[in-house]
User: What shape does this take?
Amino acid sequence: MEESLHTEVPGADEHLSLALVDSVSRAGRGGRHDELGTADAVRVWLLARDLIDPDAVLYEYCRGRIVQLRDDLRDLFEAQVGGHAPSPGAVHALNHALTSAPGVMLLRFEPTMGFIRSADHPATQVVEHVMALIAEDAATLLAGDEASMLASCEADGCEWFFLRTHARRQWCSTRCGDRVRAARAYARKRAALNAEMS
Ligand SMILES: [Zn+2]
Assistant: This one.
């Protein structure tokens, strides 16, 4: 299960923003895999993190906005890890996500259900609400004590971020660590073979 891979990435369980950034481009057998490739995949991803109701409907438009937020978060994470300034657009987008969440749930009376609270545009509300939660998590992470622990995986082809839970950790997961070790062993073997043959 692709989903379970995240549980071994330090920080992905605690930080929605980290989990979102890591939902893309896991290189490996069968090519690259985007966990948010379709609107339904986005629904499953959000549902697995209790961010939406089971009956919430997500559209391609919603997927586009979440994927855009993911790109902006990657920009911010890369700036933090690389020690350079983020693009102004990414900061603006994050702040927009933080502030545009509908704060007011209106009171309605439905004859069959009695009083309920809901927003004017439920479909839009779902994605705005989710984006605000993820943006809040990102802002907390980037401006907090854990920011210095944020790191990008050093394995070839891996674009995941993780929290460096101990100083020497270079890889997002044991899977990447094993992959790098295997590649190094293979390179050594080839070098030895080449030396023998020459
Ligand atoms: Zn990795």
Q: What stands out?
A: The beta strands are 106-110, 114-118, 150-152, 161-163. The first helix runs from residue 16 to 21. The chain has one domain: 3-197. The helical segments are 16-21, 39-48, 60-82, 88-99, 122-143, 174-197.
